[in-house]
Every structure is written in structure tokens, then in C-alpha cells.
């Protein structure tokens, strides 16, 4: 077919295409194939390309287009200059080197601790030995840091040094040992699993038909032995049995042979090695008997053996698939296309640079706090650590206001000139930092960003589990994964979709599903050990029977190979871990490390932070106690009220941009007040905030910080008394200013707050106590009211006024006594202690650093999820042990009768399949935990 020039395609292009990323895309004529240009039938075939469903003329074009899309090579359609059936496909499609291209690699590879991390889909995984084979083979490559394969999800996670090893080489090695690996994408991964499921179903159907036919002829042969069947009749039935069994053996049974061959070629053994040996020996022994007319044939056993194995694996595969896809409901499906309004890379760069500077200083501060510093270094630092310059919110507000003014002017100009402000449709993958996008009402927010419109109403139920709508103001931070529940708004993209908050949670989930706890590693090792011993034992059984009764040697050996195959043993752990992990996710408890479930089952102590953990972390301002009046302007209100408003405005100005609950309470209370501008703002973790207002330096934080007291020295402001009990408050902060003449700090006011204890805290603590688990409270709040709250909750061990280092020391002291500690925290200063605990969890909405440091995340803010996690982890441990005992007992019991010849091969296949099915069904009981 002749090529279609670009001019023709432009004539048939719709306005949607003109305003999209696909400008210049060569399109076919109407009702012609998007891939080759031929006329399409009615109804046509369809394939999703570049965010739109495209018409295809035949299944061949549809499959070719799907291959291009799945390989990440949609750029081919943007680059081609003509459409015809002979146009060459991208040559990279057949070469794995395409994945080394930066543009494609960026879609599935990300950086972590100086190394590269890739999430891959792996096809043809059948048992734990397959995962071990891939892991052990890749571990031999120079540059591989870690490789973990998840059998249940058919996925793998590899961490490597890209300077030493390209991703194409990793994929090539996986292909060499008989498995197919592709970059993970949820849609293509599910399509891959669906295709694999359809293939299994087709093979199962052929095996079912063949085994039924073979059994029919086998019954005739069995009766013929007792009714003097003629030789030619017997031989005829044998040849017919061979005919119906051949497609079963060579097609339905091919997965077992290819898997076994891949393992043998890699000089390893897996579960399919003994199975394949049994099938090959039985089939070719029957073939020899058919050709020579001597001996017995067992085509029915071969066919039934393959059928029962496939049936067991099909049921098992679907159970694993169902368990694996449960967690997908937690992840937002990205919109394929978004509306790009403009681009402001400079503004995004300024914001990101401010955030990077902030995070850099924050990390330095935490590192200093968690280590012992030398005296010389300590003398060079303020008494409450090096500060952090945080002025991000003010910066984003200015940028948002400037954009809104520019946008309004642009709209006015467009209306005067009769033009329409352009909106360009772009794909999610092509979105860049600095893009300004329009988020339609009701749609998902694809990435993190800054709100440019005056207001917006969003729902963050994915992170918090709460359906309450959150009102955002101009300049506020918008979290990727939230939903726009009001009018359309514009936002400045500050992170790529894969680097957004929802992207972080997705990566944490992937990491958890990829990592293997020690129990799973031990199970894999035991299964491999078992396979090797089975092969040795089968040789001994053959030799023994060959001496006693050569006619039974082959069949007894086959029965041993089949009946004792440790498939159930290899499934005992991974299926239980997958189901329990997804069950925990339904409670809003998201595991981010592989060892979390196993360690949760062993905990003896639970250590809690107070603010935002045992309490809601949403304190309300109760009272302002004036200590030292400040200068004030004329006001119609009473002097006392005016003084409090002035002090509140100063305190709120110091807290602008902070995510601390106290800051939120102050800013909420000062909502209608004019906040003075600040400069030289410094944040001190475990201390407070310092900034300059109108030439005066102010501090707000706990008493020792605000007054610059050394905790170990005598209080220089003994007259300042914070009485939380009298004020019925849970916490208080002090506002102070530095005297210009002496540089001493003068207390100006004390702000009292009440932070309500979570409704479910008491029942959760009582449940833990009933389980024999001791609760400990470790809080940075220095007030005695914190200890009173702990006493009221029944927490016997409570410590207040702790720095991050103090918290770590308390955890280490417990661990030194043999305790296994779960730490539950919230906030940046909890990151060190979360990392130090045996297992940890943080509340979603906490600082990113705290979430990454923890082994799990509570998404819905419901702290009682901890008791659910403990209950499920205990049940998971019991079920795994039950599966182990069953698998070992079955293999031990069936060994003797199989070796003695009492178990025919077909019965051995049924026994092995039922054993594996029992393990899967037992693990699925965790869905009701």
C-alpha cells in the first residue's frame, strides 16, 4: 500500500490531536488501520496507543502494536514519517539494548542510595526453585547488589550498580535461563498474567481431553487382559493411546520440560526436574513397549499425571493471582492524559532548591543528634543543634500569587483578542517538573505539586483513610494520589509521578512484596535440599527394584519422583505471606519491608511516641498566658486581647511552613490575624523555631529551648512556671525574644494546648496488655502532663523530654535485655528510633523520612491497626508452621509406600496436587483474619 503523506493526516486530524503531545503524528485516513494503513473491518480491532484507543485491521496488527507498547516503544509512532504495511518496526524491539536508553529506562528504573533499582515482571515462574535460580544466577554478576523475586506476584526487584552493569545484560541473563522479564507496569503486568492464565487453561483443556481418551482405551486394555484380547487389537489400542497422549505430552507438558531444562542448563535443580524425569521415563518406556510389543504401556498415567499437575497448578496460580492483585486497589491508577497549561521550570527549581537545602540541613541535624559529637564540635553549635532554614511556604505563596496575576492578565488579553487559552494534552510519562497542569473536578491528582489557584478542595482518603475534604489555599502543597473534589484548579508540578508521595508508597509496597523474610529463605533452602535428596533416593529405589523385580523398577521410581516432589513445601511460606500482607493492607496497615510480619509475631514490647501517635496530633489552643507585654498599636479591643493577638500573630508567623501539630494549631488560631514577615528562620529538631521579626529575634518551642537553657544547668528563669494541670492542658510552648543589650532570652508568653487522646488508644493498649506485650512511651514532650497522660492510659514505663538519641538509647537498652521492640512514631525526630527498633511503623502523613525509615505505615490513622497487625502476624506464623508440618508429614508418609510400589504414578500425581492445594487453601484462611 502506498504511504500516506503527513499533509493528508493533518487534514483528517481532530482538534484533540492538534492540542496534544501527538502534534505531527502521522495518522491514517478515516476507517483505516493505525498500524499499517489498510481499511479496517467492522467491528475493527483496537489497541491503546499514546493514550487513545486506535483502530486495527487485523489481529496481527493488534498484536504487533501491543508488543511495541509493552516494550515501551510508543515513540516509534511519533517518529515514523509514513504508514504502510512494509514500514519497518523499531529495530530495538528485538534487542534488549533498548532498555538502556535513558528515556525508556527512566520509566521503570529509579535511584536509591547511589544504586539503581528496577521493578520487573517475570513470566514462567512455577515454584520457589525458579525464584532461587534467578536470584543465584544474577548474584554471580558483577555489580548486582541485591535481587529478590516474588513467586506469588510474578515480580522481581533488582538493585545494582549501573556503572558496572547495564539493565539489558540483566534482562538477557534472565532470558538465558528460560524466563522472560520486562519492566513492570501494572496494566501490562496484569495482561501478562492473564495471557499466562489463558495458556495454562488451554494446556489444561488439552490434557483433560487427552487423559479422558487415554483412560477410555486403557480400560479396554485392562479388560482385554482378562478376556483374551487379540494381539493386533491390543497393539491397535496402544497406538491409538499413543496418538491421543502425544499432544498431551509434547504440548500440555512442555512447561515442565522447559523449566527443568533451564535448571539443568544452569547446573541447578528445581521442582520440575523430578516431575520431568518421571514423565519422560513413563512416556518413552510406554513408547518402547508399543513399538516392540513387549512390556506394559502407561499412556493413561502420563496423560492423567500431566492433567492433575496442571489442574493443581492452575488452581494454585489463580489463588496466588487473586491474592497478589488485592493490593492493587491501594494504588492510584494514573490518568493516561493530563492537561498541560504552561511551564515554569524556574519556579519549580527555586522551590526544589529550597526543599533540598532544608532536607540537607535536616539530615545533618538528625545525624548530629543521633551520634556523639566531640566537645569542639559542640562548642561551635547552638545549644539546641544546628538550625534549618525553612521558608518554603512563603516562597510557594509568592510564586502562586505571581502566577495567578499573570494568568488573569493572560485571560483578559485572550478575551479582548478573541483567542482561547491553549491547553495541551500530555501523557503522564511525559510530565516534567515545572509543568503547570489543570486538574479537572473529580479526577485523580497525578503528582505532587503546589496549588496555583486561589483555593481547592481535595480528598486524601488514600493516605489517611478519612473521607473528610481538605481545603487547600494558594501556595499549599498538593499530594499526588489525592482526588480533586471541587472545581478545576491549576498546580505547579514539583515531582514526577514516580517520585510523588503515592509513588513513594507504591515503591515501598513493591519493596515489601519483593523482600523475603528469613522464614521464606529457609523454606526455599529446605525445598532445594529435598529435591536433591529425592533424585538420589529415586536412583536407589530403581536399583533396589531392578534387583528384586525389574518390571516394577521404572514405575516405583516414577512414583517416588512424583509423590515426594516438595511443591507444597515451597508454597508453605510465600502464599501465606502474600495473603496476610494484603489482609493487613485492608486494615490500612501497609508493610514496607519483607521481615515485618515475621518480626511482629515475635515482639515483646511496643514503644510509642506521644504526639500524633497516642494522641490525634491535632492540638487546640486553650489559653495564652502573657508573661511580658510587647509593643502594640492602637486597637479598639481591650489591651489584654490586643496583647494576646499580637503575641499570637508573632508565634504563628514563626510557625509558617512547619508541619508540626503545634504549628497547625497556632496558624489555625491566628487565621484572621495579619502575620508579620519573618527572616533568618531556623528550625531546631526537638527544640523549636527561631526567626527575626522587625529586627527582633524570637523563639518559640519548649521552655529550655525558648530561654536557651542548658538542660543540665540551673534554670535562669525560675519565676516561669508552666502549670499544665491547672490549665488542663496536654502541652505548652513558650514564646521568647532576645534582649538586645544582654543577648539573654526573655519569655513573652506561654501558649497552652490540649491534644486529645485517640479514641481507640485505650482499647489498643488493653489488648496488647492482654497479649502479654509491655507498652512504653518515649516522647520528646518535656511537660509532666505527658507522664500523667501515660499513667491514665495504664502505661507503666513512660519517659518524657527525650531527644532522638535518648529514644534510641532506650530502645537499645530494651534490646540488650532480649526484648523485641516495635516502635510506633510520627515526625522527623522519630526517624532514628524507627530505624533502631526491631520493627517499626509510622502514621501516614508523617514526614517522608520517618515513613522511609519505618518497616510499615498505618494509612488510615487508626492506631488500633497495630493490634490487627499483631493478630494477623501471629495467625500467619501458625499457618506457615501448619503448612510446613503438613508438607513434611505428607512427603515422609508417602515415601515408603511409593518406594515399595504401592502407589501408581497417577495416584502419586493426585496426591502431590492435593498436597499443594491444601497448603494454598490453608493460607487463604488468612483472608478472614
SSE arrangement:
Elements: H1 6-11, H2 15-18, E1 45-49, E2 52-56, H3 59-70, H4 75-79, H5 102-105, E3 109-112, E4 115-123, H6 128-139, E5 144-150, E6 155-160, H7 167-176, E7 180-183, H8 186-224, H9 231-252, H10 254-265, H11 272-292, H12 299-325, E8 337-343, H13 345-369, H14 375-380, H15 392-417, E9 424-427, E10 435-439, E11 449-451, E12 455-459, H16 461-464, E13 469-473, E14 477-478, E15 483-484, E16 489-493, H17 501-514, H18 518-548, H19 550-563, H20 567-571, H21 574-586, E17 589-591, H22 596-600, E18 605-608, H23 610-614, E19 620-626, H24 639-654, H25 661-669, E20 679-684, E21 688-693, E22 696-701, H26 703-706, H27 724-727, E23 731-738, E24 745-754, H28 761-770, E25 774-778, H29 784-793, E26 797-799, H30 804-816, E27 821-825, H31 831-836, E28 839-843, H32 848-853, E29 856-858, H33 865-899, H34 905-924
Parallel strand pairs: 18-25, 18-27, 25-26, 27-28, 28-29
Antiparallel strand pairs: 1-2, 3-4, 4-6, 4-7, 5-6, 8-9, 8-10, 10-16, 11-14, 11-16, 12-13, 12-15, 17-29, 19-24, 20-21, 21-22, 22-23, 23-24
